[in-house]
Design a protein that fits this description.
Elements lengths: L1 H18 L12 E5 L6 E9 L2 E10 L2 E11 L3 E8 L5 E9 L3 E10 L2 E11 L2
Antiparallel strand pairs: 1-2, 1-8, 2-3, 3-4, 4-5, 5-6, 6-7, 7-8
């Protein structure tokens, strides 16, 4: 019985160690200020916070010399994020994308849908503190 208990403990330790494998995919926080990077036709900026994977915040888009404010709602799944850019007086925009490490920054690369965008690629950058 004692040997069976020892074997069970060894198996539990091995299983636990396997679950905390540091080579697994990295999870990213979305909290912070993000700006579009080299996006043609408009400049986006937003500041968001994340609470239990729910994302909220606010931002602005500058296009044609005019700034338009929007609210941000969405979710962060650790490696991907889904956001709604909620405008008061114009069509809303959806963003779907994934996180990547950049040179001294974190990138959020994905596609915009709505308000004239039909799967338009965009990259948001959050500089490291």
């Amino acid at each position: 019985m004692r040997r069976r208990y020892s074997l069970l403990m060894v198996m539990l330790v091995v299983a636990t160690a396997a679950c905390s494998d540091s080579t697994g995919p990295e999870n990213f926080s979305i909290s912070g200020t993000w700006t579009s990077d080299g996006f043609s036709g408009a400049e986006f900026s937003m500041t968001v916070v994340e609470t239990a994977r729910a994302v909220e915040g606010a931002g602005h888009r500058v296009a044609g010399g005019e700034a338009t404010a929007y609210r941000v709602y969405g979710a962060n799944a650790g490696q991907t994020a889904s956001l709604l850019l909620d405008f008061d007086d114009s069509a809303d925009i959806n963003f779907e994308g994934g996180f990547e490490r950049g040179d001294g920054s974190t990138l959020l690369e994905g596609l915009l849908y709505g308000a004239g965008y039909a799967g338009t690629p965009i990259t948001f950058r959050r500089d490291s503190d």
